[in-house]
Specification:
By secondary structure, the chain is mainly α. 74% of the residues lie in helices and 0% in strands. It folds into three domains: 93 residues, Helix Hairpins, CATH 1.10.287; 77 residues, Helix Hairpins (Orthogonal Bundle); 47 residues. It contains 13 helices and no strands. Helix 9 packs across helix 11. It is extended.
């Protein structure tokens, strides 16, 4: 706890009206929010790269964002870091009765669906009982789509298996083809297609966001290798035919996976 206390002291000093940092003093919740999102992505990137040294540092950066927001809230008389820690502690205790509940709850063990039922009760307490309430609009679209589908599924609005989700993709592909040259309809139908693909991912137990991120990394790795190989031969990508580029791409796949 001494390290947490020291961090809180550092943050308070940075925001001191007389002796603090001008940049830190100029910030508010809205101006800091993009940095908070960026730090969360950097944590995820360190995990994807299996770089535990970077993970330690990035988690520290993310923690600093929590401290920063908490300090600004404290200055406004809203809440402090201790309230944030207490709120998440209470939430975890409440949502894990099979671990922290009474003897009967612990003996019953984990009950499938209990997490969502407890969360539904929490939503009712804040006057929004919709199954899809509380899913942040700022989430990446793929991640939010997966959460929306999961919430709807929890109350029975879903296909019984992955075949229904696959059929929906075929349906959306046909509707996209029917859109013709109508830009607005093409935009709408393409969004529906992406949502259908995310639903299939959910049925297959795949996280759509991380799967696409992995595909992005794979494409970049292969493309860079192909660029280097073509450049080493004294050629440029723009000068090659699609057939030759396909050969080079397959060679890159064989080299770097």
């Amino acid at each position: 706890m001494k390290h947490i206390d020291k961090l809180l002291e550092v943050m308070a000093k940075l925001r001191d009206p007389d002796e603090g940092c001008p940049w830190d003093l100029a910030q508010d919740f809205a101006s800091i929010a993009p940095y908070t999102i960026e730090e969360a992505y950097e944590v995820a990137d360190a995990i994807a790269r299996e770089d535990t040294d970077s993970l330690r540092d990035e988690l520290g950066d993310l923690l600093f964002q929590v401290v920063f927001h908490s300090r600004m809230a404290e200055e406004a008389g809203l809440f402090a870091f201790g309230d944030v820690a207490a709120a998440i502690t209470d939430k975890m205790l409440r949502r894990h009765p099979h671990v922290f509940g009474d003897a009967a709850e612990r003996a019953a063990g984990h009950v499938p669906g209990s997490w969502e039922r407890i969360k539904a009760g929490e939503r009712e307490a804040v006057d929004d009982s919709s199954a899809v309430a509380g899913i942040a609009h700022a989430l990446p679209a793929l991640k939010r789509a997966q959460k929306l589908g999961k919430r709807a599924s929890a109350i029975g609005f879903d296909w019984p298996d992955a075949s229904g989700a696959r059929d929906k993709i075929d349906e959306e592909l046909a509707e996209l083809a029917d859109a013709g040259g109508d830009a607005a309809r093409t935009h709408e139908e393409f969004g529906d297609l992406l949502f259908a693909v995310v639903n299939l991912a959910r049925h297959l137990g795949v996280d759509a966001e991380t799967a696409l991120a992995a595909a992005n990394r794979k494409f970049e790795r292969r493309f860079r290798d192909m660029e280097q190989a073509i450049g080493a031969a004294g050629r440029g990508i723009a000068d090659l035919s699609l057939d030759v580029l396909e050969e080079e791409w397959c060679a890159a796949k064989a080299r770097v996976g």
